[in-house]
Amino acid sequence: MTIINGSSLALILVLSTLVTCKCNAAGVPLADQTIFNVMDFDAKPNSELMSTQAFMKAWRAACDFTGHARVFVPPGVYTLGETVFAGPCKGTHSIILEIAGTLKAVPDVSEYSNFAWISFESINGVIITGGGTLDAQGQSVWQFNDCKTNPNCVHLPATLHFNNIRNGKIMRLKLINSMGFHLHITSSYLVRFHGLTIDAPEDSPNTDGIHISKSNTIKLSRSVIRTGDDCVSFGQGTNNVTVNKVTCGPGHGISVGSLGKLAGELEVRGLIVKNCTLRGTTNGIRIKTYAGENANRALGMMFSDIVMENVKNPIIIDQSYGDKSTDSLSQVKISDVVYQNIRGTTSSEIPVQLLCSSKLPCENVRLTNINLKHIENTPITSQCQNVNVGYTGVQIPSPCQGPSS
Ligand SMILES: *[C@@H]1O[C@H](CO)[C@@H](O)[C@H](O)[C@H]1NC(C)=O
Ligand SMILES: *[C@@H]1O[C@H](CO)[C@@H](O)[C@H](O)[C@H]1NC(C)=O
C-alpha cells in the first residue's frame, strides 16, 4: 500500500507540471502567452526585401501589450536594416523575443545612424532566445574600418546593442561576422548572457565578442567566442560582472580596458572571470590603461581556473597602452587583483608581465598556483614594474626577482 501524504502529493504535482509544462524560456506556460508573429506584420522571409518595419511593428505591439507577450520570428532568412526595439513597455512581464530564423544585415554602413544594427533601448524585462542566427555580413564592410591608422575612428555598428536594459536574458543564439562589436552593453543592470556562439575570422577588425561598459551585475556564461579582437572587454563603469565557462579564441583574449583614454571615466570594480579557456589568443587576461593623464581606477578583480592554450601573453598588465615609453605615467590605479590556478601553454618567453605605472604603482596583486609552459619548452620568466605582488603556491615562471617597485 502506498501512502501519499500532503507534501509528497505536492511534490508529485510539481514534478508532473515540470514534465508536462509547455513553457517558454521564462517558465511561463505557452497557453497564457500572446504571440506576435512577425509574419502577421508583413515580414518577408527568404527575400532581399526588408523586414525591418515588420519586426519593429511586432515589437511595438508586444511592448504595448500588458499580458505575457512573445515576439516570434519563424524559421527563414530575413533581411534587416537598422532595427530598434525600444521601451519602456506597458506590461510587467518580460517580453520574449524568440528568433528561430536567420537575420541578415544590409551590408551598407550608410544604413546605420546609431552605431548598431539591432538595438534594445530602455527596457525592463526582456528575454532574447530561440536558437537563431544573427549574421551581420561584416565581411562586406570591414574594409571601411580605419582604427589601425585613425585613433579617432568611428566604430562600425554592433550586431546587438543594449542601452539602459534592466533584467535581461540573452541566450541560445549564434552571432556571426559582426561589422563592429558582436554584443555591446551599456548603462544596464542585471543582464545575463549564456549559451551564445560568436564567430568571426581571426583577421576581422574590432569584432569584439562582448564589450561591457557603465553596467552593473552582468553575467556571461557557457559561451564560445571566436573573433578578430577581444573576446570579452570590460570598459569604464563595469561593476559586479561574472564571466564563467567561456571559451575564447582566436582573438585578443579577455581585457579590462582600455582605461584612462577619456577624462571623467567611471571606475571598474568587482570582476570575476572563472573556468574559462583561452585558445590561440594574443592575450589571456590583460589589463590595459593609457599612459596619459586621465585618472581612473580598476579594483577587485579575480581571475580563477583559467586554461591557456598557446596564448601569447597569458597574464599581462600594460599601463603603457598606446605609448611606447617604458616608464608608464598612467593615472589609472590598479589594485586588489587575484590570479589563481592559471595553467597551460604560452608562446612567449615572458608569459607573466606586470608592468604598472610609476605614478601609481599596482597594489595588492596576488598570484596563486601559476603553472605555464612554453610550447617549445623554451625557458620562461616573469617581468614586473612598479607593482606590489604576493605569491602563493606553485609559480612557473618563477616570481620576479628582487624589489619590484
Ligand atoms: C552582484 O552580482 C550577483 C550576481 O552575479 C548578485 O547576486 C549580487 O546581488 C550583485 N551585487 C550587487 C552589489 O549588485
Ligand atoms: C570550475 O569547474 C570545475 C568543474 O566543472 C569545478 O570543480 C570548479 O570548482 C570550477 N571553478 C570555479 C572557480 O568555479
Automatic annotation (TrEMBL):
Q: Which GO terms describe its molecular function?
A: polygalacturonase activity
Task: For this entry, list what GO says about its biological process.
Answer: carbohydrate metabolic process; cell wall organization
Question: Lineage of this protein's species?
Answer: Eukaryota, Viridiplantae, Streptophyta, Embryophyta, Tracheophyta
Q: What's the protein here called?
A: Exopolygalacturonase-like
Q: Which InterPro entries match?
A: Glyco_hydro_28 (IPR000743), PbH1 (IPR006626), Pectin_lyas_fold (IPR012334), Pectin_lyase_fold/virulence (IPR011050)
Q: Note the Gene3D superfamilies from the entry.
A: Single-stranded right-handed beta-helix, Pectin lyase-like
Q: Which family does it belong to?
A: Belongs to the glycosyl hydrolase 28 family.
Sorted alphabetically, the keyword list is:
Cell wall, Cell wall biogenesis/degradation, Glycosidase, Hydrolase, Secreted, Signal
Taxonomically, the superkingdom here is Eukaryota
Which positions carry the signal peptide feature in this UniProt record? 1-25
List locations, semicolon-separated. Answer: Secreted, Cell wall
**Coiled-coil ranges per UniProt:** none
Transmembrane stretches, start-end:
none
List the catalytic residues.
H252
- Source organism: Solanum chilense (Tomato)
